[in-house]
């Protein structure tokens, strides 16, 4: 982490007078938006011509964090010649989106991230696998080396940390993370305001989607596995989108006795799934691999092309159950 702070300071200094685009991943979350806007603001305050670009829109409850920066989204972005790219919170370059990535013919200048699988795909790689969030890396480095953090930058950094640590509840929420959060609060971050903006602005459609999802929950293997489903009709009927499925898999995961939570989403081209657990022994990354997916030991995803719930639901659940029996016995 110390080395990352120095590398961040040197990167910011070397960019003075240059043109930079700060890129995030598709379907951005709080850490993505927070790290894009915080880094952009630090660069602007350091004399760098910086903008943010993302393939997808900024979630409506996060738009206040983009104040004062140019944040380009959508397919019609025009990137001026000579603008170099830095990615934040992207485990690999493809997470930026192929079309957006193609706008930058040269290798990405820098990659700042905390995902364990990050292969280091840029010229300069500031990857700290034990960091709680990309915003944690940025905040630590900025505080250590005196990079500019005004009140809104502090709010942006806090946004990434509060979302990626599950509101400071995961094991990644260490004492030093709390110390950094305290410093960000001194500089203008507002926890109650962030909590309201990020966690208490759900649409009524999301509530209806949640009701439908809860109605589909089924228990398997004596209550050790709990699965639920979403269809395209659910989105259409509740006027919601894929963004709104965020967090739904936490409901089955939160039930006592459940070791594997499964969310299956039926789309036009197949079934996408989310897997969540609490015991690393169950290796959900390996389970996802059996279902054409991948991820982390406790959180993974899969993508069964050409499958439908009607014809393939049982097959998928049988693979999950067989994996559970094999790995829980070890
Ligand atoms: Mn993150």
Strand and helix layout:
Elements: H1 2-14, E1 19-23, H2 30-45, E2 49-54, E3 71-73, E4 84-88, H3 98-102, E5 110-113, E6 124-127, H4 134-145, H5 151-164, H6 175-186, H7 191-199, H8 204-215, E7 218-220, E8 225-230, H9 232-238, H10 250-253, E9 260-267, E10 270-277, H11 284-289, E11 293-295, E12 299-305, H12 309-328
Parallel strand pairs: 1-2, 1-4, 2-3, 4-5, 5-6, 8-9
Antiparallel strand pairs: 7-8, 9-10, 10-12, 11-12
Helix pairs in contact: 1-4, 2-5, 4-5, 4-6, 5-6
Bound molecules: manganese (II) ion (MN).
Manganese (II) ion binds at residues 31, 89, 114, 133-134, 164.
How is this structure best described in words?
This protein is of the alpha/beta class and 330 residues long. It folds into 2 domains: 2-199, inorganic pyrophosphatase (n-terminal core); 207-328, Diaminopimelate Epimerase, Chain A, domain 1, CATH 3.10.310.30. 39% of the residues lie in helices and 19% in strands. It contains 12 helices and 12 strands. It has helices at residues 2-14, 30-45, 98-102, 134-145, 151-164, 175-186, 191-199, 204-215, 232-238, 250-253, 284-289, 309-328, and strands spanning 19-23, 49-54, 71-73, 84-88, 110-113, 124-127, 218-220, 225-230, 260-267, 270-277, 293-295, 299-305. The strands form 2 sheets. A 6-stranded parallel sheet has the order 3-2-1-4-5-6, covered by helices on one side. It has a 6-stranded mixed sheet with strand order 7-8-9-10-12-11, with helices on both faces. Strand 7 (218-220) and strand 8 form a beta hairpin. Helix 1 crosses helix 4, helix 2 (30-45) packs antiparallel against helix 5 and helix 4 (134-145) packs across helix 6. The longest helix has 20 residues, at 309-328. The radius of gyration is 20 Å and the shape is globular. The mean pLDDT is 95. The structure holds manganese (II) ion. Manganese (II) ion binds next to loops.
